[in-house]
Amino acid sequence: MTANKVITKLLKLTGMKVITPVFKVQTKELWLYVKPYKNGCRCPTCDHRGTIKRVMPDVRRWRDVCVCGWVVYLLYTPKEIECPTHGRVQEEIPWASSYARITYRLEYLVLVYSQLTTQKAAAQLLHMAGSTLSDILHRTINRIRDGHRVRDLTAIGLDEVSYRKGHKYVTVVYDLNRSRVVWVGQGKARSTIDTFFNEVLSDYQKKRIEWACCDMSETYIGAINDHCPNAKLVLDRFHIVKALSDAMDEVRKEEWRQVSGVERKALKGLRWILFKHPSNRTPDDKRALDIVRRSNHRIHRASVLKDEFDLFWDYKSEWAARRFLKGWCTTALKSRLAPIRDFVSTLRKHIENIITFIPSRLTNAVAEGLNRVIRIVKNRASGFRSVQAFIDLIYLTIGDLDIPGQIPNRFRTT
């Protein structure tokens, strides 16, 4: 076996033949002059073999995976061919994408390592600068997602996620059926979400959306109503419960400010007990609430209203759920608790989009779970200065397209 064949087998060089290896000892670089093996002179568009017209004047170089601390480069002089369909074009390079300066194999490792760890750690493993890896990652993700179309979208969720301090947000659109992110845009204004509906989805796709879930943001509600004529909007259960819990907690804060001494001590630690679901409260929690019932009627009323509202989510018929909400709102208005009355006003404003939960049982729980992954990505990087870098990592980690899986299978080796 010749030395060139040994190098080819050891480095698993697929689709190419080693002509001349050159060892750069001082810089620990291995330059391999190669050529396509049995698949050269093909058109990059139609993959048909063409006629050689001329050889390019310059030798191109592609960086490959490091081996034992040695940086491997592939060198080749591409040919210009005559394709019967597309005319004069540069031949396809089987080990790298057009205009790339690294091989498919290195691109695959960059994508996989960036999914699993920080970009700094991935750069150290691949023996390259962090800025170089960041540029490679951005170009590769953009190239693979270029032309990608959203498909089979029937249930969507909308939410915003902070990517840095100073109220900097991105709007995230989720496919609730497949638990994936389909689109991310900078900001949370109406113009941002309009960009998704106008530029990403066709009129046919917008008509196919049957369910949509979001919080009580007028921006998202208005966008869904305007762009998705056949979608039934469901306001997220989590955000409704949170709004009621905040109103109840505001009552507790008002009472805390008005009392002192022994009375204040009795209210200490009550916040988390009130937030708990009744089924999760311990005997000690129940004794604490019993003391509150006898000592502070306002907090007790707010707590009872919050616990009673939880019964709404168990209803199976819309007419019974609507009757329950009407009675609960009447009782809440009679409580003379300003924060609870404000919540009732909000509830009545969106009651039709809350009732739709009963037949659909749809929530943004999938979106909240994906938001947790997004926060892990953000915390792992200690925040992002560039919103585009944040968006790239979201698409790579939980996007609707398996980006590493788009690399040709024969190059997906470690």
Question: Could you explain the architecture of this structure?
Answer:
- This protein has 414 residues and is of the alpha/beta class.
- It is built from 18 helices and 12 strands.
- It has helices spanning 3-10, 104-116, 119-125, 130-145, 190-200, 203-208, 218-227, 237-258, 262-267, 270-275, 283-295, 297-309, 318-333, 338-349, 351-355, 357-360, 365-380, 387-398; strands at 16-24, 29-36, 51-55, 60-63, 71-76, 79-83, 87-90, 155-164, 168-175, 180-186, 211-214, 232-235.
- The strands form 3 sheets. It has a 5-stranded mixed β-sheet, sandwiched between helices.
- Helix 2 crosses helix 4 (130-145) and helix 17 (365-380) crosses helix 18 (387-398).
- The chain is elongated.
Rounded to an integer in angstroms, the radius of gyration calculated over CA atoms is 30 Å
**Strand element count:** 12
Main sheet: strand order? 10-9-8-11-12
Strand count, sense and barrel status of the largest sheet are: 5 strands, mixed
**From N to C, what is the helix and strand string?**
HEEEEEEEHHHEEEHHEHEHHHHHHHHHHH
What does the overall shape look like? elongated
Low-confidence segments, given as residue ranges, are: none
Pairing-aware structural class of the strands and helices?
alpha/beta
Helical region count? 18
Helical proportion, percent range: 40-55%
